[in-house]
Design brief:
The structure holds two protein chains of two kinds. By secondary structure, chain A is an alpha/beta fold. Chain A contains twelve helices and eight strands. Chain A has one domain: P-loop containing nucleotide triphosphate hydrolases (Rossmann fold). Chain B has a single domain, classed as 3 Solenoid (Pectate Lyase C-like). Chain B is mainly β. The chains are: A alpha/beta, B mainly beta. Chains A and B meet through helix 7 of A and loops of B.
């Protein structure tokens, strides 16, 4: 395991929770891509899997077989934080704190999470927490130590409804000004009026848009390989995640054109202009 | 989160009426909700409710008096919850999941009628909940 950075406490470290309410909208995929994206630019990043009992951030990152200790071992005092952090295979600055699989959400308390985040903050520039679905203790644990929240939704009424509920709960927990990622958008269906548009979603949720990730087979392909699509220079979803990473860092990046499969897009792609 | 306001402190301001004023048309039993109500949030008040924001799907507003929303109603609204048939619901965009006035419960027709493009008011007329464009005249809207 790598030793603590020598500069001491990082002034600009941030704890970001990735949440959604509804399951299956892409919290874990988003967490993994943000982590890999930030780490590939040389940042020190810790990813925390708060989904105790249903862990899978380790699987998505391809680090499952390296787990010895998990988050409950740290909060329970069975090991030191440094021992439980798993170093990524590819990126020097990327670490994972895995969830426990044989326990449930009550194994950790919000106070313990706050303390844990405070400890991670000493060493990492970005701490990204993968929140479990639902609004119960797992959610309360995940948001307890966070400074900022990213809400992930898909363009479906059920996911948007749950996102709205989550935004209300975040506000009640004093996590103001959450940012929105709309995942798995199919612009052709939006054009045909068969899918909610970004405008429809923003109209209801009324929060700032951090990015839009188009539906892309590459996400499934790279996830199954234990890779992150953000590293794939040619995929559109990868580009979307790279843009989101820049916006997380506070840079203004224009929203990408989501019209898929247009003639111009295919032509430009053919001559290698992305 | 459950934002339940069952009983608020009575208005601290004093009201003064000049002679000839119809003081009986004015009451001070109103609360102002200065935010959008999101899914899972609820406001209950024994009086009138004015919302500066939207009422999103999954949110609920229950008043024994009138409900006035300076935004869109997409959730459930109940005016005249204690049985007042004179209560009204007013919104810039009235497209509720369900709208209740006194003991009447209504919902929008199943076929899509398109979104309203102007402020509307719902009230009971001849025993039926009726929705009309909000038109003001010198007599007021109610």
């Amino acid at each position: 395991m790598e030793t603590a950075s020598k500069e001491g406490e990082l002034a600009l470290s941030e704890v970001i929770v990735v949440t959604s309410g509804k399951g299956g909208v892409g919290k874990t995929t988003t967490t993994a891509n943000l982590g890999v994206g930030l780490a590939s630019q040389g940042h020190k990043v810790a990813l925390v899997d708060a989904d105790i009992g249903l862990r899978n951030l380790d699987v998505v990152l391809g680090l499952e077989n390296r787990i010895v200790y998990d988050i409950t071992d740290v909060t329970g005092g069975h090991c030191r934080l440094r021992q439980a952090l798993i170093k990524d295979k590819r990126f020097e600055g990327l670490f994972l704190l895995p969830a426990a699989q044989t326990k449930d959400k009550t194994a950790v308390s919000p106070e313990e999470m706050k303390e844990l985040c405070g400890e991670l903050r000493q060493e990492f520039e970005f701490v990204i927490i993968d929140c479990p679905a639902g609004i119960e203790q797992g959610f309360r644990n995940a948001i307890a130590g966070a400074d900022r929240a990213v809400v992930v939704t898909t363009p479906e009424v059920s996911a948007v409804r749950d996102a709205d509920r989550i935004i209300g709960l975040l506000e009640a927990a004093e996590l103001r000004d959450p940012k929105l990622i709309v995942n798995r958008l199919r612009s052709r269906m939006v054009r045909q009026g068969d899918m909610m548009s970004i405008e429809d979603i923003i109209d209801i949720l009324a929060i700032d848009l951090l990015g839009v990730v188009p539906e892309d087979d590459m996400v499934v392909i790279s996830t199954n390989r234990g890779e992150a699509v953000v590293q794939d220079d040619r995929s559109r979803s990868g580009q979307a995640y790279r843009n989101i990473v820049q916006r997380i860092k506070g840079e203004a990046v224009p929203m990408m054109n989501l019209d898929e499969g247009g003639l111009m897009y295919r032509l430009r792609r053919m001559i290698g202009l992305k | 989160m459950l934002m339940e306001i069952k009983k608020a402190a009575p208005g601290k301001g004093t009201m003064a009426f000049s002679p000839g004023d119809t003081g009986d048309l004015i009451d001070d039993n109103t609360i102002l909700v200065q935010r959008t109500l999101r899914s899972g949030q609820k406001v209950h008040f024994d009086g009138n409710i004015v919302v500066l924001g939207d009422i999103n799907p999954g949110a609920e507003v229950v008043a024994t008096g009138n409900v006035i929303v300076m935004g869109s109603i997409r959730g459930v609204v109940h005016a005249g919850a204690a049985g007042d048939e004179e209560a009204v619901v007013m919104a810039f965009r009235l497209k509720p999941t369900q709208l209740r006035i006194a003991t009447h419960i209504t919902r929008p027709p199943d076929e899509q009628a398109g979104d309203p493009e102007q402020p509307e008011v719902a009230r009971i007329k001849n025993g039926v909940v009726t929705i009309e464009a909000l038109l003001t005249d010198r007599q007021g809207v109610i």
